Amino acid sequence: MASTHPVARAFAAMLEQKVAVLGVPGVAAHYTSVCPMVGGSVGQHMRHSLDHCARAADAVEALLETPAAARRDAPLLQYDVRQRGTGAEVDVAVAATEARRARADAASTEAERVALC
After folding, report:
1. pTM of this prediction?
2. What is the dihedral of CA 92, 97, 101, 102, to 10 degrees?
3. Confidence tier at 114 by pLDDT (50, 70, 90)
4. How far is CA 56 from CA 39, 61, 91, in A?
């Protein structure tokens, strides 16, 4: 079932766009090539972006696990928690799987998340 909450819809759309980009014919041939202007590859950018999605989802999970009275003081976002050189950085199929998994995980607990908003 598609979400009616705008934040949940935007999160889902962003992950679906990642899967669509990863499905573009020929993307695998250039996925690990480093662009000299930015000093990174499409794969590195995708991994970095998926890291941020995961950190946002982690923050929501932390909110769900924190008693309401303590939520104001709960540390929410930890963007410095990441691993470089993962499979998502070098393999299009791994990155697509991670994006699909993040989308499915978001959908599975959406009712709880929307209740917080």
Report:
1. 0.77
2. 0
3. low
4. 25, 9, 23
